[in-house]
Design goal:
Layout: H1 3-6, E1 27-31, H2 32-36, E2 42-46, E3 51-59, E4 62-66, E5 69-73, E6 77-81, E7 87-91, E8 96-103, H3 104-114, E9 124-127, H4 131-149, H5 155-177, H6 191-206, H7 213-220, H8 224-235, H9 239-257, H10 262-268, H11 274-285, H12 289-296
Antiparallel strand pairs: 1-8, 2-7, 3-6, 3-8, 4-5, 4-7, 6-9
Helix pairs in contact: 4-5, 6-8, 9-12, 10-11
Length: 300
């Protein structure tokens, strides 16, 4: 697949949705059937600039399209789709399983913990050749789904522990299957994708400082206009939107999971004054920080 055809592939945030990330969590979990049946069991080829998918299929079949190749999976299997990988699915109506989506900050954190053994940057699929390994991963996925849907004290910490355990199991599965499955991923020669990944890494490291796009572009070695063009072409948003989305995600997390005042959240995210933070938050969510926090509180 050529670069020109790759850039024509739609960039989705979450299975075709265009809304902001739907939760203050860095993780989203849902059953495959509840999403795919809305699209007649077919999710056409697309890619995500800043999301990683992990699918676990316990029943049914799927025709998987991955970086220009098709694969028919008819047994219990797992699929890993990193950011920027072109992928599509055609599920059978009897499909059972879950899709866990990780925001890039969490995926990067897990990848750093796992090092080279991490599977999160390798587009691949894994048929389960050992029933006990399938059972262990199925248990972890079920626990993640239950914890995600039923918030409780310590939920955030437990979810992070469970997803880390899942990545370990997937990495072991990758090691077990060896080289029987071809690895896919963005071509290293694609400078545009490398620049976007560099920009996303800079956002993660410096978003609290609210650097200018010009400063970040200079760090990458491109003009701000070129960086903005790359972001729109590959991520579907402007460079500034990507920076603001990371700020907004962290603001949601702090308002949900900490007792920091609005002023403290504002200061921690580099805003010069709380009023400016409130305007930024309301412009992007239609809610004030205070109203958002009230909605996230238990028993609302």
């Amino acid at each position: 697949m050529t670069d020109s055809s790759a850039t024509a592939v739609p960039v989705f945030k979450l299975y075709g949705e265009t809304q902001h990330w739907p939760t203050p969590d860095l993780l989203h979990c849902e059953s495959i059937q509840e999403r795919s049946q809305l699209h007649d069991w077919r999710i056409r080829p697309h890619r995500h600039a800043d999301l990683v998918h992990v699918l676990f299929i316990s029943q049914g079949s799927v025709e998987l399209e991955l970086e220009g190749t098709s694969h028919q999976l008819q047994s219990v299997s797992a699929i890993v789709v990193p950011a920027m990988s072109i992928h599509g699915f055609h599920f059978s109506p009897d499909v059972q399983g879950h899709i866990i989506t990780l925001a890039k900050p969490l995926a990067d954190h897990l990848h750093a913990l796992m090092g080279e053994s991490s599977t999160l940057k390798k587009a691949d699929f894994y048929p389960f050749l050992q029933a006990n390994r399938a059972g262990r991963i199925a248990t972890l996925v079920s626990q993640i789904d239950q914890e995600y849907r039923q918030p409780a004290p310590g939920r955030n910490s437990l979810l992070e522990a469970l997803i880390q355990a899942l990545v370990v199991e997937l990495s072991r599965l990758c090691a077990y299957t060896g080289n029987t499955v071809k690895r896919y991923g963005p071509r290293q020669s694609d400078k545009g994708r490398q620049h976007l990944e560099h920009y996303q890494a800079l956002i993660e490291a410096h978003y609290r400082e609210q650097p200018s796009i010009e400063q970040l572009a200079e760090r990458i070695g491109v003009s701000s206009a070129h960086l903005n063009m790359l972001c729109r072409q590959l991520a579907g948003r402007s460079a500034l939107q990507l920076l603001h989305e990371r700020l907004l995600l962290e603001a949601k997390r702090q308002l949900t999971y900490t007792n920091m005042t609005i002023g403290q959240v504002s200061d921690s995210l580099g805003f010069s004054e709380p009023a400016y933070f409130t305007r930024f938050f309301k412009r992007n969510t239609t809610l004030s920080p205070r109203d958002f926090r009230i909605r996230q509180s238990p028993g609302r």
